[in-house]
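Open question from group meeting: does this chain pack into something compact, or does most of it stay loose? Before anyone orders reagents, we agreed to write out a predicted structure and look at it together. Recording both the input and the output here so the notebook holds the full record.
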Amino acid sequence: MSRVLRAFISVLVSAAFFYFPAFAGQSHADRVSQANQGTVGIISGGIGGTYIRIATDLAAVLDNGEELRILPVAGKGSLQNIHDILYLKGIDVGIVQSDVLAYIRRENLYGNIGQRIHYITKLYNEEFHLVARDDIRSIEQLAGKNVNFGVQGSGTYMTASVVFDSLQLNVVPTTFDQALAIEKLKAGEIDAMVYVAGKPARAFADITPEAGLRLVSVPYSTPLQNAYLPSVFTDQDYNGLVPPGEQIETVAVGAVMAVFNWQPGTFRYNKVNRFISAFFQQFGAFLQQPRHQKWHEVNLAAELPGWTRFGAAEDWLAANPTSTAVSLQSTFQQFLDQQTEGAIQLSQAQREQLFQQFMQWHTSQQTN
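Structure tokens returned:
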């Protein structure tokens, strides 16, 4: 080996110790252990959806490269995300729809699911996007037609099945991914498509009025009121899918940060506990630009019917009752409680509908 080559290798080794001092003198096993000690894998959703943007926000705010490192992972929907939380190595947290546990119980997919999967917090509401050709103006017109439910096993497929079954509306489901479904809808090969995602969904960002597509109303009728909440779309959400000045009714389902029910004191419990502490303590940073606007709907302390909160999250909230970050959702609820005290008592659905109108007003004030 030449003197020049030996000198070059010596420089590289010195540089490695300079830039990675924690690894100096460590064995490979020690390095593996240290690298994984604070790494939290978060299974989210597809590239065009809201889940992946929420996961990347978590990485941007919380990842400090040492004690805590967040690895966002693109997922394939709520059912698959639950499977991955249960069985896939390296997945610590997942973002799923709030109706997924009820669906799993109904279909008997996993035993004892309520004890195995808990939640950290409810995040925000995801809207049911029903996009069709411009000549279809009501959901009833889709009877007998081809409607894309998304990839089989995805959260969209699950919710689309429940919604159309609840409405007793028979359609012909297709199972294309969202990007392909948009192209097939434009080409007239299918009649409509469903996508469950927080508005505004990036998948529809480039659709212009010239595409000949529109969002179709899903009225908040009695069959849907047990499982879903009311919401609306405006042209501020999608100027290519909603005519100017119009509102399109729809329903929404909650997004949930789910976790396996690790036992206290275990390695995985401690790792998730560090993540929860950092997330709750720094929650205010998620309400700042350029983070996704859906963070403003989050109330960390909100209870989630049908779910059990993960022990570490429950403990943190109990120990920090005045430190829980205040979001627009919780501020609005406090205001509403004060205004309706001793007067008309609003249902959860009515509260949600008023909050959606409040959010539209808040957004318009920011853009004016």
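Observations to bring back to the group:
The chain has three domains: 1-26, 27-123+256-327, 125-254.
The two ends are 69 Å apart (CA to CA).
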